[in-house]
Design brief:
With 336 residues, the chain is α/β, with parallel strands linked by helices. The chain has 13 helices and 14 strands.
Length: 336
């Protein structure tokens, strides 16, 4: 039976108070609040109305004992030092709260061993897991999905439920933009080793370059950091008239490194990024980049996980499109 209470004037409203006010049994009131799919819609609405009028909120510990559910969702992210992930966490948190769930967040720092250990710990406490850009093997992720409800973000493994921001297609559109401007030697400053998203991006860029009979220079793998962007600027081939970067931190490092090498953007090198932060809009010049629906990705991942917890058979990858935003950092090559 569901437990819970709240102070109602001088007294405490209980589940039995809610049941009496709704004209149902205590067991029915419990089901209406915790397993609404098991009761008729008019009954559910009466119970919810009574609970709201009385200010009743279920006790989380009692709920876990009676339903086997904690109301907790585990979220494993690779880093919190990159502001790119903040909107994702916010979208996940807001959607979780709307469904009376709460997030437990752990940071893996792109380390597969740490990632697995954190997922194990969260899996023992939470009803299910969301893993963002996981770097573990496909086999390890499949095995985890057999033990705990699991949704992947920006990683696709067979028929495991996943939510993907389609940055690969968006990056291909940025490549097409550079090709249309006349660039034929283009560098791609790639992301961290083992990144599934980076593999998708590299493959589609190679395909686009081959179709256009252009040359693609792939630098990396690179850690997605400002310092790595500076190093990439030093390693950028002199013949490259444009560069695409895995993320905005690498892009900011490239801007700094190119300026230090007296290479102008976009006069000497056009520059574009595969994700977008407010900092890229305020640089000089402002940087062409992707508008990625990161908050929507986090929200949809929680929705997919709740579907799994409700017993729905979810085996689909949801792809959310990314949109190129053209700014001053890209222009036709000077020698066109």
């Amino acid at each position: 039976m569901l437990g819970g209470h709240v102070r109602q004037g001088a007294a405490m409203a209980t589940l039995m108070d809610v049941a009496r006010a709704a004209g149902v049994s205590k067991a029915t009131a419990s089901r209406a609040l915790q397993r609404p799919e098991l009761v008729a819609e008019p009954t559910r609405l009466r119970v919810l109305d009574a609970a709201q009028r009385l200010g009743f909120h279920p006790n989380a510990a009692a709920r876990a004992l009676t339903t086997g559910r904690t109301g907790l969702v585990g979220l494993v992210v690779p880093t919190l030092s990159n502001p790119f992930f903040a909107p994702l966490v916010m979208g996940a948190q807001q959607t979780a709260e709307k469904t009376d769930h709460h997030l437990l967040i752990a940071v893996s720092e792109y380390d597969p061993v740490r990632e697995a250990e954190l997922a194990d710990r969260l899996g023992e406490q939470a009803d299910g897991l969301i893993m963002v850009t996981p770097v573990g093997t496909d086999a390890a992720l499949r095995e985890r999905a057999r033990r705990v409800p699991l949704v992947l973000v920006d990683r696709q493994v067979g028929r495991l439920p996943a939510v993907v921001a389609d940055t690969a297609t968006g990056l291909a559109q940025l490549m097409d933009h550079l090709l249309d401007q006349g660039h034929r030697d283009i560098a791609y400053v790639s992301g961290p080793a083992g990144s599934w998203a980076d593999g998708q991006r590299s493959a589609i860029l190679r395909e686009r370059a081959e179709q256009a009979k252009a040359r693609l220079h792939v630098l990396g793998p690179m850690p997605p950091t400002f310092d790595a962007g500076i190093e990439a600027a030093r390693a950028l081939p002199r013949e490259a008239t444009a560069a695409l970067a895995y993320n905005s931190y690498l892009t900011l490092g490239l801007l700094h490194g190119l300026a230090a090498a007296h290479r102008r953007v976009p006069e000497d090198v056009s520059l574009a990024a595969a994700d977008d932060l407010s900092s890229l809009k305020s640089t000089t010049p402002s940087v062409t980049a992707l508008d990625v629906p990161v908050e929507e990705v986090g929200a949809l991942a929680v929705t997919r996980l709740i579907d799994l917890l409700a017993g729905h058979h979810v085996t689909v990858t949801s792809r959310l499109p990314s949109r190129p935003v053209l700014r001053a950092s890209t222009a036709p090559p000077a020698n066109r």
